[in-house]
Structure formats: C-alpha cells, structure tokens
Write a structure and sequence with these properties.
Elements: E1 2-8, E2 11-20, H1 22-34, E3 42-53, H2 55-71, E4 74-78, H3 82-91, E5 98-99
Parallel strand pairs: 2-3, 3-4, 4-5
Antiparallel strand pairs: 1-2
Helix pairs in contact: 1-2
Amino acid sequence: MEVKIQKEGKEVVVSFIGRMDTPASQEIAPQIEALKADAAGTIILDCKELSYISSSGLRLFLTLRKAAAEKGGKIIVRSIGDEIRNVFIMTGFFNLFEIE
C-alpha cells in the first residue's frame, strides 16, 4: 500500500495505491493521523488506484471525517471503483461522505 499526499493551498489530496487491508491500514495510520492538522480545509481522498479496503481502512476514513467535522472542514472521496463503492454502500459510508 502506498499513500501520496500533496498539499495545494487549503486542499490536501491523498492518493491511495494498492490494497488497504488491516496490516496496511496500521502501517499508514500515522500518515492519516497527521492529516488531522489539515482537517479545517478540504481533504480529498483519491481512491482511483485503491483496489480493496478493510474495516480498518474504513475506520481511518471515519477518523478523518470526524476531525473535519470538528474543525469545519470537508472530506471528499474521489474516484472510487465499483468494488469500493459497493463496500461504501453496504456499510453506510456512501451517505457519510461527499463522493465524486
């Protein structure tokens, strides 16, 4: 699992590449935790190259959403594939996030 983070003004684009299974989620958790500092702006979670997400990965997304809500920021989930979209729908996450 690879994570690329680009800051562009008040926007932060986080690109996920690979499978976000439980071990990968634990590995990237510190990077996601650091993004809470930018939660007052807009954080775009680019899932174009994300092939799988576990419940641990979903929890990371939820953590960012909570931080953004507390700081008046916004989380946008972008470019989810059909498999990830189905996971979001089944878990109720589809209604929690702005999906592009």
